[in-house]
Amino acid sequence: MNIKQIRLDSFGPYENWTFTSGPNGVQLVYGANESGKTSLLEGMRSLLFGGKHKKYGYVSGSLELDKEGTAYHLGRQNKNLDFYSFGEPSIKDEPNQLWWHGLDKKTYNRIFGLTLEDLQGVDILNEVDVRARFFGAEGGEQLGGVVKSIETNANDLLVASASGKRRINVLIDQLQENKARLSALGEHETQYVELQQALKASEDTEAEIQNQIKEWQDYREGVEMVLRAWDTYRRSEEARRRMQQFTSPDTLDRDAFLSIDEGLREARQNMQLWLDKEEALKPENFDPNSPFTTYGQDIEDLIQQGAKWEQLRRECEEGEAYIAKVKEQLDFSRGLQSSWRKDESVPTDVNWFEGERLSKRLRTAKDQLLYWQSQAPSLQKEPKISEDSSSVDTGENSPVNTWAQQELQAVMTDIADLESRLGEHGSIRMAAMPIWLQRIGGIGAVVGVLMSLAGLIALESVLYSIGGIILLILGLGLFWYGWRLRHVDDSDVARLMRELERLQQRKSYLETQLDAPLPVASDVPNLETAAIEQRYNDEGKQLQANYEKALAEWQAWIPEGAAKSLDEDDFFSMKHEYDQYSEQLRTIEGYEKRLDEHKESLRLIEDQAVTLWYNLGVEAPVSPTELKRIYNQYKNFQQQMIRWEQKESQRKSYRMEYDNWHRKEKELLLEQKALLEKSGLSGANEYRQKLIDEDQFKQWETIYKQSQVQLDLLTPDGENKDLFYRRLREGNKENWTDELAHADQELNARKDAMANLYEKRGQIVEAMRALGSDQEQREAIQQRQELESELESALEDWATQVVIAHCMERAQQSYEEESQPKMLELASQYIKRLTNGAYTFDMWGLQDGLALLNERGERLPIHHWSSGLADQVYLALRLALAKVFSYQVDALPIILDDILVRFDEDRQKSALELLAELGEHQQIWLFTCQQQVYYMGQAIAGIDTHILQRA
User: Fold this and answer.
1) Cβ distance 267 to 664 under 8 Å?
2) 894-897 and 113-115: which strand pairing?
3) pLDDT confidence of residue 521
4) Is a pLDDT exceeding 60 seen at residue 524?
5) For the chain, percent helix, then strand, then coil, each to nearest 5?
6) Pairing mode, if any, of strands 60-67 and 2-11?
7) What CA–CA distance (Å, rounded) separates 485 from 428?
8) Are 882 and 107 in contact (CB under 8 A)?
């Protein structure tokens, strides 16, 4: 798990503060003393685990976390938790319960979030929580939990303390009180004598306590004197150490070096002065080697085509809009055609010659058939009715009637289609209201003319004239639009009405043919009449067959998309509509061809512009407007180029001045180099640092002498000065502060004992007067029996818990002995890295205590470790514990605050390299107040360096 961002809205010195980590595993944060490093560490602890800080209270802020590629937000506002993954519901559980198996804040602070004080000591290896979590793995952690649960149950029954309040302790106290009560009730005289002796003993105890109070008061005064001298002594020791650090046996020529340094400063100032003057002559943001120099002619060529470019773009846009409008009008006119169906496409190739031939043939066959029908033979003789005569066929099922009925049905279908089209066209006309548009447009045009004349002649106002012209244009536009709608609608409606009238005439003719009765013979014809009728019928059948064949061929020829009810009379209207449609289609194709030519010309110009844009590095879209902007920049560049050439000679004179001072700088640098070689130093910074060290040595020497004078004044009268210094040298402020607090506690304890003694003396006097009755003695005996029975039961329970705890503790120790050496082996590798191979852990002598082995195999016990070596061992143990935890649960971020202060430079570098290596798999935050650690971190890969700033 990695921390990507920290935000502290309110915590200690931090208000509305945000910090973002780098991409590497180690985040090294430098800050001087009192810059807020420790407060930041406490804030990170509080954000991870919550809780109230003893100094700053509750934290308000958030952490942005990354766990296995998933981003989480962990925020806290006082006691409120705001924990969620982005895009997911809020998480109610704490992170330590959700991810880290219930790891508590105390254990985290002992392993992962460390200050220099938290780092000290190896007692952490014996803590129950650490043993259970870091050496127990899976089953071992559960085993440790069981052991702790059993110990808790046993402690709930009995605690090894005189003032314990557990169940068995309470029963024992009650039983003792009962026994004392029985003894008091049975032995009043003996008790009175004992009380007298106790009263005498209290007087002796009082005298003894008074002597102890006097001794502790004297001891406290001595400790208080040492504390008053402690800060002065530490300042004296610090000054002495600084004097040793800054002492230099070299004798440096201060005046010569400072004179050369001042000359170099003057030379460089003048060099910068003439360089600034030279730069001031150069136009801002001007480069004589700009692409405008190379591609200026291309810009000139393209700008000459700018008008053509804009015209082509405009014509292409207008052409596309015009073609779309013409196609829309073509589709509309197609819907008004009577010979062609709108739901099907018009064929591209039609054999009109064949159609004309078939229409003429059908017309001939039809005329012949109609002529035959009109020449039906008439019978001249009177009819003769015979008994066996029957009704003659009326002719309803004749071939002519069948054809007439079919033709009538097709004509009625076409009439219904035309009426529906007329209805739609009528609704369009009603919606368009062309007459009202013409009227409104005419009125607007007249008003516009009047306003223009009034503005020009009467009012002499330009606004009135412009408004009148605009109104005139709008009125004329509306008038034209209404006229166009009426004209188009009237022509289309007239054509549809003519077609409807033709179909109505055709319908009437067919109905007349169906209603006309055929000749009916009511008598027996003679032979001549029968022969005539037979010839007539035979001729009708032949003509009917010819007509049906011609009709079938005509209907087979009718093109796809044409109305199937068309007859031979509709041929020329159908061909006329087809020719009109084809002509309009060819016109559109011609427009599209010319539009493609314009687009090709436009593409060539825009390709040239794209190439120019690329050469100039322009990222804006290609357009004539952008070309004008580039052309303006090019003209500006040409003007700046002229000014730059004019000022070139002046810049050369400034350059000569610069070169003169540059030569002087080189001469001074040669003198400085000779002075450095004479002193044996490698660089001017080192020489300058030596001079600063001499000044600091003198300052610290003054501080040391002043501190010695103050210590002489603070040395108690009658005490040896060396002995007093020894006490200061061997102790530390924390110990003396603890001793002072201990002395105060002892004094308070003696005073409390004295108060208790006085109270007890009063109780002794009162107890001598107290006597119990026989009833009280019987109640006391019964109470003793009950207490003894209850105590026996509680002791059995406690003994059972103790035996179980002992067995479980042995099992846990056996389990931990298998896991702990693995951690110590890993810690031994880290110690070897931190000490540059000087030490490792003594793995075979752990039973004799924790110790190190040097390169010769010699054992170094813990009490022989230096403070710096101890810090390195403690750090290695923490890193190993954190590594073990990452194997078992999760790689938690490690936070270290100034833990390298007692490392020398080589081991600081080794520690940073080790942390960078561990940071590849686990995030590490390192806070430091040492600049050298900060600079070392910048030179090591895998470490991000930051400077802490609260504002």
Assistant:
1) yes
2) parallel
3) 44
4) no
5) 70, 10, 20
6) antiparallel
7) 10
8) no
Estimate to the nearest angstrom the gap between the alpha carbon of 206 and the chain centroid.
75
CB distance 339 to 563 below 8 Å: yes
pLDDT of residue 523: 46
* Residue 346, φ and ψ in degrees, nearest 5: -85, 130
Q: What is the pLDDT of residues 243-275, one digit of tens each?
A: 777 755 556 777 888 888 888 888 888 888 888
Long-range contacts of 400-405 (CB under 8 A, 24+ apart): 400/369, 400/373, 400/513, 400/540, 400/544, 401/514, 403/544, 403/547, 403/548, 403/551, 404/510, 404/513, 404/514, 405/514
- How many alpha carbons lie under 13 Å from residue 44 in its C-beta half-sphere? 29
Which token pair is 711?
A: 């210590």
Distance from C-alpha of 894 to C-alpha of 878, rounded to nearest angstrom: 9
Q: What are the φ and ψ backbone dihedral angles of 191, each rounded to 5 degrees?
A: -65, -40
Residue 62 pLDDT grade (very low, low, confident, very high; cuts 50, 70, 90):
very high
Distance CA 502, CA 492 (A): 16
SS3 labels along 812-831: HHHHHHHHHHHHHHHHHHHH
Residue from 412, 336, 358, 419 nearest 559 by CA: 358
Amino acid at 509: Y
Q: Is 872 exposed, middle or buried (0-12, 13-18, 19+ CB in 10 A)?
A: buried
Beta bridge partners of 861: 851
Give the lowest-confidence range in 20-24, 356-360, 606-610, 941-945: 356-360
Give the pair of three-digit tokens for residue 240. 């002495």
Query: Whole-angstrom Cα distance, residue 946 to residue 368?
Result: 112
* Nearest alpha-carbon partner for 64 in 38, 52, 42, 82: 82
Q: Kindly report the length of the chain.
A: 951
Binned at pLDDT 50, 70 and 90, residue 6 comes out as very high
- The neighbouring-strand residues paired with 18 are 7
Determine what percent of the chain is predicted with pLDDT higher than 70. 76
Pull the structure tokens for residue 600.
Answer: 């090709």
> Which token pair is 415?
């009439």
Burial class (CB in 10 A: 0-12, 13-18, 19+), 277: middle
SS3 28: strand
| Element holding 3 (H helix, E strand) | strand 2-11
Please give the structure tokens belonging to residue 142: 């559960």
Distance (Å, whole) CA 561 – CA 559: 6
Identify the sign of the CA torsion 183, 188, 190, 194: positive
Cα Rg of the chain (Å, integer): 59
* DSSP per residue, 348-408: S---HHHHHHHHHHHHHHHHHHHHHHHT-----SPP---TT--PPP-STTSHHHHHHHHHH
Q: Cα separation of 803 and 269, whole Å?
A: 87
Query: What is the CB neighbour count within 10 angstroms for residue 292?
Result: 20
CA–CA separation, 414 vs 339, rounded Å? 10
Query: Who's near 652: CB < 8 A, 6+ residues apart?
Result: none
